[in-house]
Design a protein that fits this description.
46% of the residues lie in helices and 12% in strands. It contains nine helices and four strands, in the order E-H-H-E-H-E-H-H-E-H-H-H-H. The structure holds flavin-adenine dinucleotide.
Length: 226
């Protein structure tokens, strides 16, 4: 099971910080925490979302599949950065992997899935140990379902944009679970994060009021064709 660990470099009071940064430009008293908070909230509500880019989020994502992390990397707004576990130095003879929930209801399919993962692990080990193939080459056999770990750094504007796409029912199920874990970890970090998550980490249909996807889940009606 994956987990999101919020690192201490993450802005503890994001709304107050946004108000403090905006206050500089408005010649306001930025020493007053309550006024900063109120100003920050006003900026968000008014849609002045540039201020969100001052809010830093640094975290470890551990135990999610290489596949979902590949999708995570598509969210490039605001130039985020990250480090990812190397495929050179980890013991791949016994790599961990994600097992989809759909397999739980089908023991035969689950057995096939597990046997395939085991065969990949055994082949990686054999290539390396019996044939002397370098680990970086044997590692090309590794599946997208393999668990990985990253250290990620981005701003909250990026995460809010991400939530609109990835909390949508059309998003890959593991990404939706990752978003659930992320929301939980941020909410636990501070009260201000709790407010941001509850009000702004939303699927896109909750922002627009209608579904923009071609294949709708029905949570919101589709926009009438104009
Ligand atoms: C159901 C679903 C299916 C998908 N299928 C695929 C797929 O098959 N293949 C695939 O490659 N991806 C796929 N994606 C990923 C998708 O295409 C985007 O890459 C992903 O949503 C991240 O892009 P973004 O614009 O949402 O986020 P970000 O890159 O974080 O951008 C956020 C916002 O910032 C602005 N922005 C970002 N970059 C720029 C820029 N360069 N110039 C100007 N403005 C910018 C835009 O307003 C953008 O909306 C899928 C996503 C979903 C939800």
């Amino acid at each position: 099971m994956g987990q999101v660990i919020i690192l201490e470099e993450t802005t503890r009071n994001p709304i107050t910080l946004m108000g403090q940064r905006a206050g500089v430009c408005w010649g306001a008293d930025i020493t007053d925490g309550a006024k900063n908070y109120k100003r920050g909230l006003d900026c968000i509500i008014s849609g002045h979302h540039r201020v969100m880019e001052y809010v830093n989020v640094e975290m470890i994502l551990d135990g999610y599949s290489a596949r979902v992390i590949r999708e995570w990397y598509t969210h490039i707004g605001g130039a985020p950065t990250r480090l990812q576990a190397s495929t050179r130095y980890i013991r791949y003879e016994d790599f961990s992997y994600i097992t989809p929930h759909t397999l739980q209801a089908n023991p035969e399919a689950e057995a096939l899935y597990r046997e395939t993962m085991k065969a990949i692990a055994e082949s990686c080990a054999k290539l390396e140990q019996e044939y002397g193939i370098p680990r970086e080459d044997a590692a090309l056999l590794l599946p997208l379902g393999m668990e990985t770990k990253i250290v990620d750094k981005r701003n909250v504007r990026n995460l809010i944009e991400m939530s609109h796409q990835r909390m949508c029912t059309r998003a890959y199920w593991e990404y939706r679970e990752l978003m659930r874990d992320l929301c939980g970890a941020l909410k636990a970090y501070s009260e201000e994060w709790g407010y941001l998550v509850d009000h702004y980490f939303l699927p896109k249909c909750e922002v627009t009021g209608y579904c923009t996807e071609k294949k709708s889940c029905g949570r919101r009606p589709k926009k009438e064709e104009g």
